[in-house]
Amino acid sequence: MAGRGLGGAVVIGGSMAGLLAARVLADHFEKVILVERDLRAEGPVPRKGLPQGVHLHVLLDTGRRILDQSFPGLFEQLQEQGAELIDSSRDVAWHHFGVWKKRYTSGIPLLLCTRTLLEWNVLRRVKERPNVEFREGCSVEGLLADERGGRVTGLRVKSAQGEESWEADLVVDASGRGSRMPQWLEALGHARPEEEQVHVDLAYTSGLYAPPPRFHREWKALMQYPRPPSTWRAGFISSVEGGRWLVTLNGYFGDHAPTEPEGFLEFARSLSRPDLYDYLRDARPLGPLTTHKVKDTRWRHYERLARFPEGLVVLGDAACAFNPLFGQGMSVAGLGAELLDTCLREQAHRGDLTGLAQHFRRRLPEVIRLPWFMSTSMDLQYPQATGERAPGLGALHWYIRQLMERSSTDAGVHRRFNRVLHLQTGLGAVLHPFVALPVLTHGARSLVVPLQRLANTETRPPPPEPMSLSTPPRDE
What we know:
With 476 residues, the protein is α/β, with parallel strands linked by helices. Helices cover 32% and strands 24% of the residues. The chain has helices at residues 16-25, 61-70, 74-80, 115-127, 181-187, 261-269, 275-280, 329-347, 356-379, 393-406, 411-421, 428-431, 433-445, 451-454, and strands at 8-12, 31-36, 84-87, 92-96, 99-100, 109-112, 132-136, 139-145, 152-159, 162-167, 170-173, 194-210, 221-224, 233-240, 244-251, 284-285, 290-301, 312-314, 320-321.
């Protein structure tokens, strides 16, 4: 049954965070309006407001779970359209921290398709909700509020027809990295939130390719991450719908891959391993190469504000924008939407929305803290990255390095790390004695034994025997 009588809600932004928020709100409000600057074309095609949409995206298992619960049958539909649901270890050849990770059947699925295909299918599902209305070609100019600025009451919106005011009982900002919420709050007499930043000057350059005839699908995704702090270039090949490859090359600190084919291929040759280059040189380009730049990662701490208006929620990249290299954004946006649903259900006994904004903003860090800690800890291994470095970070970096190296030969260690990576569990999983003892032993041996003798640095491992994704292995 659509809606539960809480009045009207407006969502700013029609990307994944906004679509998931609209899906949640449709269960609680009589009417939900999603306002989007772009005029969307029919079908899974790129759009101006999502410049990162043509690049490689990863949907972690937590994000997959949330989408599956929100839109039953979505993944079957995606697979019918050419997407693949693979095993995140068995089907992935991953070189990281100078070693090849051991491949095993993890039972943790990973979705391979273009971001445009995924978002288009989610968009269609949200549009099926009878109480959700889409307003495209509209830009939000500011917030409406009561006289004291203590409650947001709607939005000022500009379209081709001019500027108008929309009343709403709840406004959700899911407008992404470009969110203007700090300025809008300041205009209402509130303070701007504190911002925590790590400057990385990252860019990723991507294009679609036809795989070479000699490719025998010994992997479905090939990932070559750098070995910090000495290298910062990375490369990825992902199978996507249409039997194509989506190839992405990354570089930190202004060291960015070119958008002309020869320079792109030369950048691939410069990676620490030749594997990606060896495949790419025989692949056929299917279109132009494009670049998207991310100067920094940023967490706006709305939870720390002494005053915050009722009737307002901020989630997704508008609250915390992650380094896309670690594939956390869509999953954390899903967790934010899930938290919003929880808060609205807890609010039901009140009969109104008083307190919702405060409850949500103070609990959102529970969703953000782990992925933020993981991604920024990895970035801050580089002395070129600017950001706050907590005491003890050097010891943590040493442990991470030993953990990554040990995952080359120890499936149990890799399995525990994978669960943390997919946000299935907390950091305790990789600090448990089952993991810590072999990791510390590896670290001690590394003082006297070369890495080449401790781990697989050279040989890309073959996949293990197939195993059903529905039957995950026992976790020791």
